[in-house]
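haha ok so turns out i had the wrong file open the whole time. this is the CORRECT one, sorry everyone. sequence first:
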Amino acid sequence: MPTFLVSFVLCLLPMLGIAADTKAPNDAGTSSPSTTRMIPANDAKILAGLSPLNWIRTANAVHSPVCGASIRLAFMETKRVVLNLDTARLKYPSPDRFPILAWSVNKGPVQTHQLAAGETSIILSETVANPVIDLFIKGLSPFEDRFNGDVPANAVTLTGFTVDPKCRIVAPPAAPLWLNLGDSILSGDAAVYTANQGRPPDDRWAASDDARASYGYLLAKHYNYRESRLAFGGYAWSGGGGNNPQVADLVDQLTSTTSRLTDGKLQPCPDVILLNLGENGAPKAETVIAALDKLRQRTSADTRIFVMIPVSGKARNEVTAAVNTYLESSKDRQTYLIDLETIKFETADGQHPTAAGHQSIYQAAIPHLDRLLGKASR
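then structure:
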């Protein structure tokens, strides 16, 4: 199929509203090599479909320890798409802690599947021609290591896709990038829970998560950006949350052994960065200033950096003072402090917003961001 037709079909399929495959996910088993082919995870088109800055690339796989990390691809000239993965390194004390994946086909209903020990494949689509698949990590346990080693202990590992022999992959066109950086709230932890349901038991955090309920994701989508994310349960300006280091170091390091940078910069360069930290402890001024200095060094002079006060109001004084000190000394005209002040939002446990709570935060933030970004075109 000519390239222009591939692009045309990619744009047309979502507009047609083709129903998604609703077959329950399962292990795909093995297929005859003569009727299928496997496209490895290091294929350039697959890499182009990854959400930037939150996937680790190794010789034979891609890995992410980030709730909300995603991959979007169009699979042309095929109906059947099987995701190949490796769960061998996932060693959790309970099967309930295993990561949960979610995906849609041609913008149809979201399907979910919790990974299991020994699992190697999941059928994503079987009956839809030319499926456009949007897959993301919906839930992750917050307790396991997300930083140390070449591939952290709880990273989701994808090894490729099995498709029909003639299948070709089309990655989405490049779009402006919005990077969310924060803690469990920005991650979407406990967003599946109902109001006052309580704090999830330790083994049930992954099942309580909804990465795309997060107000940060909703804001990026509202302003027509592609979202990427670095948000971890228990994270603070000074670090923590899956053993991740302080923000100034996390900007540079994808893992303890792997740089996140290309030629000293974040590439692609985020157009917008939203930080919301302080819920897990008031920071020292120098920690905030070091983080903002590093973010400015690793991005462009035009990257807009929004520092939001935690929606609970925690650490308001400390974060406000630190940001103001940074602004006075740096003369940075593209970094802004956003304080939503007192807003009401529904929570599961008095701290973590439900999906409805995230909607409230999202709506409260729009007037502030409209003044800085302009109203989103619809």
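DSSP finds nine helices and 18 strands in the chain.
again sry for the mixup
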